[in-house]
Structures are given as structure tokens and as C-alpha cells.
């Protein structure tokens, strides 16, 4: 007896391939939630690669690190990643369970996944400002590295919150919603670092990093808006995408 998924429609490989291309594209273009989440995760993801590719410029030029020592600068962002992951594992689902207990009559709300994103939307730009200006003025090398710990924490808040939110909103179509933001963030992550050194040479480390922080700050209201109006937006007939 052949076993098949209950979601198997029996369509041809050509039809499935076409759907795999069109469905994420439609969600990205016509769903405000997918577009905004893709925009936010693109910022955090692209900035991470910008940071990785400019570490050498910053720590060799500003602090005289040898090429063999620059890798130590990654300790800060690594601590931010790991620490936030541990905290998220301990408290993220507990928060959703608590919200579920306080709202037992209605269905679970995907917006319960957004508080970490709201926190990350504040931490991330502040981390970049802290990192950029402390490196600009050559404060002790441990200070900008401390700033990258906040960057790592903010970045991870973006990632796990956005992924969980999209999965809860789009359920069986969540892979398409996630694919849409993977494409966009990968393009930016591949191209933004190309401008890193030139940006710092023209604007300086402080103002160059501040430019990135200001763009992230411009998007900071998004999770707060979705916390308040997200349910109305995703259930509004105007924003229903036929998949």
C-alpha cells in the first residue's frame, strides 16, 4: 500500500514547481504581514553579514588587531546569539501558554509571538549605534564587542519571533511565507556587504553604522502596530491572498 500525505493533490511536477515559485511571490507582494516581516528580517540578516565583513576593517584599523586576532571580535555577537537562544527556549513558549490560559475562550493568536520582535526592534538599532560610535572613538576594544552582543541578541529576537509568527499565521502555507522572506533576505545579505568598507570610508564608522541603525529604527514601530492591529490586518478581506 502506497502512503501519501493528506495534502498531496496529485498534481504534476511542473505544476508543483510553478506553485512553489508563484505562491511565495504572491504572499510577498500582496500580504502586508509577509512583506513587513520579510523587510524586517532582511534588515537584521543583511546587517549581520555587513557586520561580519567589516570586522576586519574596524578592528585592524581602529585597534591594530592582527589578522589572526580579528576572529576574537566575534565572541560578542556569539554570546548575544547563544544567550538569547537560551532565554527564548526557556520563556517563549511559556509566555504563549500563559496567554492561552488567560484567553481560554478564543483561538490562540499568532500575535502572541511578537513581543520578542518588539524587544529586538529596539535592541538591534541601539546595539549598532553603541558599536559604531564606541569603535569610532576607539574606546577599549571590549566596549564595541559588548555592543555586538546586543546586536546578536536583537538579531535572534527578530529571527525566532518572525519565524514563529509566520508559522502560526499561515499554518500549512508557512513554508511559502518563509520562502518569500528567505529570497529577499538572501539577496540583501549577498549585496549589502559589498558596500561595507566604502560606506565606512566615506561616512566614518560612527555615521556609517548610524545610517544602518536609523533604517532599523524606522521599522521599529512595525511589531507594535502588529501587536495592536495584526489580527485585523490578517483577517481583513482586502488582504486575503488566494493560494
Automatic annotation (TrEMBL):
Entry's transmembrane regions: 27-52, 72-91, 112-133, 139-160, 172-192, 204-227
One MF annotation (Gene Ontology) recorded for this entry: transmembrane transporter activity
Its membrane topology: Multi-pass membrane protein
Membrane among keywords: yes
Entry GO CC: membrane
InterPro entries linked: MFS_trans_sf
Assigned protein family: Belongs to the major facilitator superfamily.
Location(s) in or outside the cell: Membrane
Protein name, entry field: Major facilitator superfamily (MFS) profile domain-containing protein
Keywords, ordered alphabetically: Membrane, Transmembrane, Transmembrane helix
Organism name: Uncinocarpus reesii (strain UAMH 1704)
Main location: membrane
